[in-house]
Amino acid sequence: MTIYLKAFSFLCVFLFCASAQAAETLRIDSKLINETVTARVVLPESYHHSDSFEYPVMLVMDGSTQFEHIAGNVNFLSTFSIVPEMIVVGVSAKSRIKHFTHTELEGYEGRSGGAELYTRFLKDELLPKLKEQYRISPYTLLTGHSLSGLYTSYLATHHAGFINASISVSPSLWWDDFALINDIKTAEQQAEKSPVRWFVSMANEPNEMADGYQRLMNVLAEKSESVFDWESQQFPEETHDSTPLIANVEGLKSIFRGYNAVPNIEIKSLEQLQAYYGNYQKTMGYKFPMSVHQYNVYGLKAAYEGKLEWGTEILEKGVEVFGQSEILWDSLATVYSMNDDTESAFQASNKALKLARQHQSKYLSEIEAQNADLNGCN
């Protein structure tokens, strides 16, 4: 077994996330859409490791059916630095046709065409409420499936000033004789606005669903990257109902392509990591500060690949930013121990143990085991 495989095995044991954190519930009495909306919120597990770190927000349309699996996958993917840690918010609409369509269809007068008003609700009522209660950064991602996938497609093509990224899973592009696609045909670059990062997918679906997707692909292929920043993927083995699980994972990976600075066995110093994310900011139009899991994964990888000084520097910077993180303090104890600095390792491990008990950490048993080992050596 190579050094890397040993390190990877350690990381898998230490970092694996089986489920998302417990959801909190918010109720918003909306004056704009005249509804009481219930939103469920899952915070990153590192949320209480800092008093100032801000997190992107991911709004999940059709939250009653899509929220749990998306929150769990964000938790897992962010643990291994594939995507950023995010605050995930599930929102359910009482009238999907009304809120998720941007044109009023004959026969549906008063019951369709409300997407613009619903967008105002999200922007002017829901997000401010979330910002009052949580540390939310100015980066917003939305995901939707089927009719709400039509809505997130609408946002991606009409509201670059509101959202940064959008995932559209099997969108109902057929609505109103493919009205949204006709809009896209005439779209031009909006001055001083970067296009939304947009992932759109389709399962193995017949008739107007497949027709709408193919029409969209044909139109987007003729547009320059300055107008739309998009990627697409088809899932021929999936049905309309099964596709959200895989499509949201692939959508997240697409939106945040390049986010992981060391995806394989290569390693970087703290200085190189800072330079990498400086360049990534130019690509994304937003600066993603390094999270608990990035400091942890990159620091341990560097240490296990023979660069103890790099690993130590990365993890020491991590505990400087996230002073309440039992994960980082325990990993720092590991690296100090590897460098035969037993006293520093024991102090870091004691700090990790105290925080793990305070947080009722799921990593408590691993942290206790390392502390006991160090206590025997001290």
From TrEMBL:
Signal peptide residues on this chain, from the entry's feature table: 1-22
Assigned keywords, A-Z: Hydrolase, Signal
Molecular function as annotated in GO: hydrolase activity
SUPFAM superfamilies in the record: alpha/beta-Hydrolases, TPR-like
Domain of life: Bacteria
UniProt KW Signal keyword: yes
Pfam families: Esterase
Keyword Signal: yes
Official protein name in the record: Alpha/beta hydrolase
